[in-house]
Amino acid sequence: MLKLIHKLQVKQKTRFFSLVVTLIIVCIPSFSQNIKLGVFIDPQLSWLYPDAKNVEKEAMDFGLNGGLMINRYFQKNYALYSGISIGTQGGSLQYDDEVLLQVYDEVDTLPAGSTVNYKLKYITIPLGLKLKTNQIGYFTYFAQVGFSGKINISARADVASENIKNDNILKSIKFFNAGYFFGGGIEYSISSETSLMLGLIYTNGFLDITENPYKITTRDLAIRLGIMF
Questions:
Q1: DSSP letters along 48-90, please?
Q2: Which bin fits 163, alpha (ψ -120 to 50), beta or left (φ > 0)?
């Protein structure tokens, strides 16, 4: 029964992802005159932030996030920003008290003092505002701010003291996460329609991501490397 429920959850996530991609593809042509598309990859540092006295933040994690970005300009220098991407993030937490962790279909009770290294994968759909300057020489400067929704599609963990190594903990992580982001950077024009992008983006999650009693949120700082068409 538990395996059947897990398969249904995976199917629901796959269907949701397919629906989002389809909507983006369908909507692009209707706004094509004011649309700028781009692709990007973000090397990023991420960590988990515990809002509890008996949980301590340990190590950060290095991850990658990449995908498609869409700028829909409603004025020359102002655009609605969206897109879709898939990325990895995580971090380590030490629990001073006992904590439950569902590994595959079994619930383990981790003893006090256990350190859990979370390795998470999310589909991210941002929605925000992008502001940019007029082109100065070959350069354009921009800032962006907004909110992002995240759908968890994979969750694994290491717990050295309990011989847990890269085990599936998907049922210990909530399906949906959300946060706000802000950042900025530069674009370097290489033709009339194409530019290279370099930026720095900070994202602050504000929803609890775990099923345990302690509130845990995500943070990440990413270097944006992209190209706009």
A1: EEE-STTEEE---EEEEEEEEEEEEEEETTEEEEEEEEEEEEE
A2: left
Domain ranges of the chain: 2-228
Output the six-digit token pair for 133.
């300057």
Tokens at residue 196, please? 């290279």
Are 174 and 210 a contacting pair, CB within 8 Å? yes
Query: What is the residue-level pLDDT of the chain in tens, covering all 229 positions?
Result: 434 444 545 455 555 555 555 555 555 444 456 899 999 999 999 999 999 889 999 999 999 999 999 999 999 999 999 999 999 999 999 999 999 999 999 999 999 999 999 999 999 999 999 999 999 999 999 999 999 999 999 999 999 999 999 999 999 999 999 999 999 999 999 998 899 999 999 999 999 999 999 999 999 999 999 999 9
Q: Which residues pair with 64 in a beta bridge?
A: 43
Q: What is the largest CA-CA distance in the chain?
A: 63
**Which CATH number does the domain 2-228 belong to among 2.40.160.20, 3.40.50.300, 3.90.190.20, 3.30.70.20?**
2.40.160.20
pTM for the model stands at 0.85
* Helix/strand/coil for 1: coil
